[in-house]
Amino acid sequence: MSRKEVILTEQGLKELQDEVNYLSTIKREEVAERIRAARDFGDITENSEYDDAKNEQALVEHRIGVLQEKLRRARVIKDCEIETDRVCVGSTVTLRDKGSGDVRIYTVVGSAEADPTKAKISNESPIGQAIMGKRVGDEVTVPVPVGSLEYEILAIGKMC
What we know:
The chain is of the alpha/beta class. The protein has two domains: 6-77, Helix Hairpins, CATH 1.10.287; 82-158, Chitinase A, domain 3 (Roll), CATH 3.10.50.30. It has helices at 10-39, 48-72, 126-131; strands spanning 6-9, 74-77, 91-97, 103-109, 120-122, 139-144, 147-158. The protein has a five-stranded mixed sheet with strand order 5-4-3-7-6. Strand 6 and strand 7 (147-158) form a beta hairpin. Helix 1 (10-39) runs antiparallel to helix 2 (48-72). It is elongated. It starts with 5 loop residues before the first strand and ends with a strand.
């Protein structure tokens, strides 16, 4: 595994810790119960229920390991460290697409907690890289496969 630092907001840290806790307690017990029930069906050499449960157990254990490694390498950005005068991890940024005029609001997070469906973009993404360190009124160009997009930063706030 890479030894790269994992940047997390306080909310992202809590979400990872909650997932590890859920997987380590509730999910492990559910899978263990499936394995016990599958054993009761008899011969496990030709038991697809048993095989499925063992595969799920391996996936759960792998996910727990991955999350624990992220937590070990985590650098947490405290809410009080989030600036509002320039874009940083934890900033909520309002952008206006200079071409279409559309306004978008993104929260910049570390790659471990990025979720574009929730408008949480990684600081390592093309848009994240383009806006990091910028101020309200700055214009940025974001390279995309079909050329580039231009945005103006309208507002910067804290994620909360």
